[in-house]
Amino acid sequence: MSVAYLLELNPATVVPYLLGLDLSPVGKEALGRVLQGLAEHGDAFMGDPQRRLQPGSDCFRVEWVFRDTEQMVFHSLHFIVSDASAAYGVLRVEYVEAFSSPLPWPGA
After folding, report:
1. Rounded CA gap, 61 and 59, in Å?
2. With the C-alpha atoms ordered 56, 65, 28, 74, is the resulting torsion angle positive or negative?
3. Coil, helix or strand for 52?
4. How many alpha carbons fall within 13 Å on the CB side of residue 38?
């Protein structure tokens, strides 16, 4: 059974970065689903020792790809997440970096 966590975003770095991404309304909805997925599947990410920044670290990394179908762009997000407060039901995104790539889509 998986636990859904409250996902906290670092207000000084992560929130402004995500708000500054060039996303259409459709892309913003997709980003919302990414963040929801991160919160819902936190146990799986935390339980994978290969995701830890180093052994014993309270931080792990997650890469997530989504597409903005309105702008026809793929976005790859790289998150660094702290599970120091996971016992209280909270995961905190400490860092995020995005890469985007316009790709030819079938039928485009």
Report:
1. 7
2. positive
3. strand
4. 29
Q: At 31, list the tokens.
A: 């980003």
**What is the value of pTM for the model shown?**
0.88
Q: Tell me the DSSP string of 3-50.
A: PPPEEEE-TTTHHHHHHTS---HHHHHHHHHHHHHHHHTHHHHHT-GG
Contacts for 73 with CB less than 8 Å, ≥ 6 apart: 27, 67, 100, 101, 102, 103
Residue type, 82: S
pLDDT in tens, 36-80: 999 999 999 999 999 999 999 999 999 999 989 899 899 999 999
CB proximity list for 26: less than 8 A, separation 6 or greater = 68, 69, 70, 71
On average, the pLDDT of the chain sits at 92
